[in-house]
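Run log // design_07
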């Protein structure tokens, strides 16, 4: 260890050592490096970390600390106001340079601006590097110089840039600065205590850079070629499940881009790259629209006559709606902190359109329960389903959850896994037990209203109500 003034590295949603522009820039100064992570619950405003994200963050930071120690460094953990803490550390260590990854959300951008001003008063400079997106958010512009509002031309513009530059490897060693007083990770109490709801998370996930790379390599080796065919079937092991690793930056989008391109071209690889670009599109929308998580991009949707139905919202959250594919998805979310991508669309459509509950309610529930809760993607996907965002699905596109279940979970494997009280029901009726013959229900040991609830809404009536509401705001616009 050395007491020379350090280059401070402020980790954020980039909890890795490979392909880390801010880390490499700090090393390139030739100064000892002081890694720092600040848990700032005030900075995101109403969007402070949810419970599932806190669980993931604990384990991801623990993994990063171990990786840093293997390189000869350690990490200072502090909790509180980012600007105050980073300015204090810089002043006490006489650091002149702070390197960090720039985020796209408005609170982080405001924090960076304030931090830069505060550091400047001490003769230090804040360097914001790109560590979380494929491209600089201002680099992808349409022909008039404005931001894109439609996904396909945005994706094509990104592809025209030739892809991100190849990722850099992790440094062999890190010349470490002396570590000031640090919090302990356990003192932050990020993990649940009573009740301990994280058993399914522990069984499913391995947070950290090593776990991210293992999952990526396994997916690319065994599932990429079939990704386009299987990704819509929740009963199949067909998706990458890389979203939480991407959100916390344990693997970069550029790393995945280039790893994917090591595999043969085909529909699976093309679809996977397009999914990375959808994530990039959502980040771009948030960059250019700071109110994106709270307000519809299409202002006429602010007049939608939403319903305030707490019992229905609770039934949806608990997976007790009486609609099996909906209940399976919501229970999967609670059990493992993640939900299959096709089912996310189905449960979102059901909440917004069949129940006429505001999309912001669903967005908030996902924010608290998803291990991959990403502000830009969460807002982008909920607004897409609600029909009020950029490149949105038309509002009148209303998923019928029974037909969706029959199409994408035809044997009922997904429902049987997460709604075990229906497991003995045959595939013909498992997605609509309400319509099953009394004899079939009896053989399966099901009593509707007792062992499994009646549907909380008639699907045809809910659809008609949603279309009527949409027609009213459209005619008033």
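design_07 sequence
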């Amino acid at each position: 260890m050395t007491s020379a003034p350090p280059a401070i590295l402020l980790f954020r949603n980039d909890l890795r050592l490979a392909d880390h522009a801010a880390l490499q820039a700090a090393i390139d100064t030739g100064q000892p490096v002081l890694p720092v992570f600040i848990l700032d619950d005030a900075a995101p405003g109403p969007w402070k970390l949810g419970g599932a994200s806190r669980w993931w963050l604990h384990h991801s930071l623990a993994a990063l600390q171990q990786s840093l120690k293997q390189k000869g460094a350690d990490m200072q953990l502090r909790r509180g106001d980012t600007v105050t803490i980073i300015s204090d550390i810089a002043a006490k260590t006489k650091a002149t340079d702070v390197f960090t990854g720039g985020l796209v959300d408005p609170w982080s951008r405001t924090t960076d601006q304030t931090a830069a001003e505060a550091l400047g008063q001490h003769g230090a400079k804040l360097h914001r590097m790109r560590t979380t997106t494929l491209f600089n958010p201002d680099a992808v512009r349409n022909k008039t110089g404005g931001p894109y509002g439609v996904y396909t031309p945005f994706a094509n513009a990104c592809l025209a840039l030739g892809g991100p530059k190849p990722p850099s490897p992790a440094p062999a060693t890190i010349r470490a600065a002396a570590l000031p007083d640090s919090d302990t990770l356990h003192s932050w109490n990020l993990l649940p205590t009573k009740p301990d709801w994280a058993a399914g998370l522990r069984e499913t996930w391995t947070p950290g850079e090593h776990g991210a790379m293992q999952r990526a390599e396994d997916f690319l080796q065994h599932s990429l070629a079939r990704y386009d065919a299987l990704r819509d079937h929740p009963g199949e092991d067909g998706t990458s499940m890389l979203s939480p690793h991407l959100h916390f930056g344990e693997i970069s989008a550029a790393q995945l881009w280039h790893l994917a391109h090591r595999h043969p071209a085909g529909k699976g690889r093309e679809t996977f790259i397009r999914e990375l670009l959808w994530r990039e599109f959502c980040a771009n929308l948030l960059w250019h629209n700071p109110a994106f998580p709270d307000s519809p991009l299409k202002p006429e949707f602010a007049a939608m006559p939403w319903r305030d139905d707490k019992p229905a919202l609770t039934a949806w959250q608990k997976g007790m709606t009486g609609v099996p594919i909906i209940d399976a998805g919501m229970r999967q979310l609670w059990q493992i902190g993640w939900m299959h991508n096709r089912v996310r669309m189905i449960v979102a459509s059901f909440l917004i359109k069949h129940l006429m509950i505001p999309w912001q309610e669903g967005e908030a529930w996902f924010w608290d329960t998803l291990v991959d809760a990403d502000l830009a993607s969460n807002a982008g996907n909920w607004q897409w389903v609600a029909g009020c965002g950029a490149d949105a699905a038309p509002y009148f596109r209303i998923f019928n959850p029974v037909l969706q279940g029959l199409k994408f979970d035809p044997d009922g494997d997904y429902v049987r896994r997460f709604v075990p009280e229906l497991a003995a029901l045959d595939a013909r009726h498992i997605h609509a037990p309400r319509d099953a013959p009394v004899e079939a229900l009896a053989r399966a040991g099901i009593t509707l209203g007792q062992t499994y609830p009646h549907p909380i809404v008639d699907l045809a009536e809910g659809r008609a109500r949603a279309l009527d509401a949409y027609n009213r705001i459209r005619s008033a616009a």
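The first helix runs from residue 21 to 28.
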